[in-house]
Fold this sequence. Notes:
By secondary structure, this protein is an alpha/beta fold. It folds into two domains: 129 residues, Nucleotidyltransferase, domain 5 (2-Layer Sandwich); 178 residues, 2-Layer Sandwich (Nucleotidyltransferase, domain 5), CATH 3.30.420. 39% of the residues lie in helices and 20% in strands. Strands 3-2-1-7-9-8 form a six-stranded mixed sheet, with helices on both faces. A hairpin with a 2-residue loop joins strand 5 and strand 6. The longest helix has 25 residues. It is globular.
Amino acid sequence: MxxxxxxxxxxxxxxxxxxxxxxxxxxxxxxxxxxxxIGEERHEHGAVTMKEAAEEVVRVLRARxxxxxxxxxxxxxxxxxxxxxxxxxxxVLQSLKELVPLAPLHIPPSLDVIHALQEAFPALKQVGCFxxxxxxxxxxxxxxxxxxxxxxxxxxxxxxxHGLSYESIMxxxxxxxPGSRVIVAHLGNGASCAAIQEGRSLDTTMGxxxxxxxxxxxxxGDLDPGVLLYLLEEKGMTGSELSRxxxxxxxxxxxxxxxxxVQQLLEQEDTHPQAAEAILMFCYHVRKTIGxxxxxxxxxxxxxxxxxxxxxxxTIRSRIxxxxxxxxxxxxxxxxxxxxxxxxxxxxxxxxxxxxxxEELMIAQHTQTFL
Length: 371
């Protein structure tokens, strides 16, 4: 069977999906953090590098005798060069190398995977789909930082991320009459929110890099820049040490002193005060952000929760929404606990939904256009 392969490469995980050429059928599952999922089967094989994960994907495909016709990739950062899906030729790959400083944890693994798949399938086109593209039309005041304009020209601007996820949610919302003002909370290990009007991103929480915005699993989110100056100048931290702390040792993990996993922290919050404080902070920051984005939109018609936490943590959704009644957001706790798709109460002025994002399908749709 002729197929489209999609690859969603994170900083430490790789997901792949295999679709029939017309996208009517999802044929295979994914590779994440050292295991391969094929249909309903899981195959453990230990921690892997991204190159090794890509090689495992190739082995799976060849074992199943699928005829891959084209490969699509999620690329986290497109900079100011890439606003549309594009064939990953030598020129584009060189431009991605130049963007590594803007996404040092994400672009190098993606390049490793691209090169590994080039070796395995040298005749196939590979397509890059950029997470930043969805936010390219943010207005001037949201797109730029209050820094010298010369820095803007060097790429120091607000890009935003999770664009393929937001695109997926908006595509699914279209037949549901969501109204013109939508806030999407993509809450997972990486977390962000976006204000979307008439399908167009007006603002989003992640900034020049995926570190910014909301408190996340291990990422700090927004901070007073003076904190960073203090750590560099007074505590003697190096740039690489600061990067590791902000990316890997902050957020829920830092506050709880235990874990960046929300489910684990919820299980521990009655006996571990730090776990409870981490959850409290996370919900506070998301709630505050929803209020701010509602101000950008002049109100809100639909609020969507998505991502691993947004889809599966009913307690988190409930705590975030408590305090947002002034915006007209009221949830039906029973529907929320029962994992309903729509969890807003009958008297809620805002429709509140829980939706599964599908970045892989968005990549496949974009990639299909290059056949």
